[in-house]
Amino acid sequence: MTEKTDPRHTVVVGCLVRNADNEVLLIRHRQRGWEIPQGRVEEGENLVDAARREVAEEAGVEVEIGPLAAVWSMVAPTSALIFAFLGRYLGGELNPTDDSEAATWVPESEALAMVTSPVMRERLAVLLNHDGGVSYRSYSLKPYQLHLEHDLLSWPQG
């Protein structure tokens, strides 16, 4: 008989930050390349504080966290829930830390071309095209495969 264990999920937050010129903030991760600031939620930390902290740690700037725009559920090879917010730049100079190699502001029209990871590119595209709802997607990796896609406000009844 196998021992039953509680499900374990990693909780991650990300934030698409825009400045006054409507440019978006991208950071360069050592392995994944360019992406939005994101990272794991620490024990005892709420999602909004975690998003604010991750942007500060990866880009060195202060942001106001706005609406939740998307939720992703990674189901394989491990389980993770990713909550992505929209944010507004408040202040500070871009200053990448140990968590990122570089940080830059880029026009929206150039941002997608910089992101080479399929998962991160899709994440950025969803956030750039945010229409006021909350998008939900379930996916797996190796290879990247999207399993389910819905707007949480218009979830089908059935």
Automatic annotation (TrEMBL):
Q: Which UniProt keywords apply?
A: Hydrolase, Magnesium
* Protein's UniProt keywords contain Magnesium: yes
Name the Pfam families for this protein: NUDIX (PF00293)
Q: Which organism is it from?
A: Geomonas propionica
Positions of the Nudix hydrolase domain: 7-128
Xref: InterPro entries: Nudix_hydrolase, NUDIX_hydrolase-like_dom_sf, NUDIX_hydrolase_CS, NUDIX_hydrolase_dom
Query: Cross-referenced SUPFAM superfamilies, in alphabetical order?
Result: Nudix
Q: Does the keyword Iron-sulfur apply?
A: no
Gene Ontology terms for molecular function: hydrolase activity
Entry's transmembrane regions: none
Q: By what name is this protein known? A: NUDIX hydrolase
Q: Which family does it belong to?
A: Belongs to the Nudix hydrolase family.
- What cofactor is needed? Mg(2+)
